Amino acid sequence: MSTIKTKVIVISDTHGKCFPHGETLTQQVDVVIHCGDLTQHSKLDEFRQTLSLLRSFNAPLKIAIAGNHDFSLDPVAFPAKLVEAYKIDPALENDQELVTKEFGTPGEARKLLDDAAQDGVVFLDEGNHYFTLDNGAALNIYASPYTPFTEPWGFTYNPESHHAFDIDPEVDIVITHGPPRGIMDITADRRRIGCPQLFAAVARARPKMHCFGHVHGGWGAKLASWRPEISEHPSHFADIDNGKSRFIANLARLCGSDFETAGERARKNEIARSEARGCFEVSCEEIKLDSSRAAEAAGGQAAVEESTLFVNAALESGGELRHLPWLIEIDLPRRSASRNHKVAGEKPDSKRKRSPSVSSAKENVESGSVDGHTQGKRGWWT
Ligand SMILES: [Zn+2]
């Protein structure tokens, strides 16, 4: 099948902050993905800051979803969080003018995001979405802001109950706020908080990439090789072949002990190169190389879809955006020239696995503004 190399920057958990020293990435890419927690307190000014950060990328399409902190986008959570705020600060309840100024009226934050469509920013609700990119590729995305929680936050479900992640089997990229269970989902207090139902849904769909954030210390990327047969109740223990999988990077590896072995020198060089670029880069070749090794080991049977690149792109650490964004190069199917491109969210009629889905969304989106200044060494790792 004819494919098109597509460059995707993935970020998450920016919490209404800008990059250190107001920097931005100048690389031209096809798509930017933000996996939620656009804000810290769901305030209008924080949404505005994140929108200006998204606009600063040199990409015609910037996709964003919500996270648990973005509760004013959730019509159920918003009133509940305000009641919580009134309990902490009773004076706030009597100052509705201030509440409206900070958080906006119901729907106001969403309107800010929707209005940014003119700058190529597309805010996605939960579900499957189909895009035709400016580079001629078709992109099939599943998005979900939902995470398991017992406390009142935005876009949550009770961990004891069921949440359906209805991922299109032809999906290319899954974007969720939370991690799947077992994949870069360990919190600072050593708990796995990833969702088992999400893992099961991703294991069945086997996307090219699943990106998320939420667990900030879980920043990293893992190229996971799937077992040939997926279990009835998939789990990271049973369905990922760890012998054929590998971490591309994670914080433990990058910030680990500093022996002068050849491996450590390579690690230091990798960090220096990434910091100079301002992002951590993964090429198509790198992903394919691993897949072809996996294919060799499996007697030539495995294809690139037998692996999924999991990316935890949470940038915030210690109140700043210290972790690097990811720049991922991914092979996407060429769009079918024979079909008309429709509006966002419309499902293409193709049923064939990995066929070039069409129908879409952001045709002729305007290019995002380009911030011309260059990247310096940031020291984002410490
Ligand atoms: Zn966060």
From TrEMBL:
It comes from the Eukaryota. SUPFAM superfamilies: Metallo-dependent phosphatases. CDD domains: MPP_239FB. One of its GO terms (molecular function) is hydrolase activity. It holds the Pfam family Metallophos. Residues 7-217 form the Calcineurin-like phosphoesterase domain. PANTHER family: CALCINEURIN-LIKE PHOSPHOESTERASE DOMAIN-CONTAINING PROTEIN, METALLOPHOSPHOESTERASE. This is Metallo-dependent phosphatase-like protein. It comes from Microdochium trichocladiopsis. The lineage of its organism: Eukaryota, Fungi, Dikarya, Ascomycota, Pezizomycotina.
